[in-house]
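Example record for the data management plan.
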Amino acid sequence: MEQRVSLITLGVRDLLAAARFYEAGLGWKRANSEPGIVFFQLPGMVLGLWSRKELADEAGIEDAGAAFSGMTLAYNARTRDEVDAVLDEAAAAGATILKRAREVFWGGYSGYFRDPEGHVWEVAHNPFWTIGDDGSLRMEPPAGA
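Corresponding structural encoding:
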């Protein structure tokens, strides 16, 4: 198996409300038009939104409705100011701020929000990694660092 992630699908209770949060609230552009599932093209991968019940059924598991899945998604920002701006944008779109951004033990700047469906996102600036013009992330220091 190649070392990569192609698609992350978030199970949601209300597909229309979840799509509104990402599209209208955060300004993301939907990549498909078929009903029943929403896809967002990201650099090198896709994020999907699909019915939580249908996703559990498809995987052959019971939806236990855990408050925390033991997983977070992350948005890496180019600057500390962008971290604060993204957290403010998420809050204005209906997200709950779990932790305001602050300096963290690994040398970066990070905060967390929960989207309206309960998915936890970290928003971080890591001065040791590089974000390409296309938004792709490389685990290498920026040039000149």
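Summary line stored alongside the record: The radius of gyration is 16 Å.
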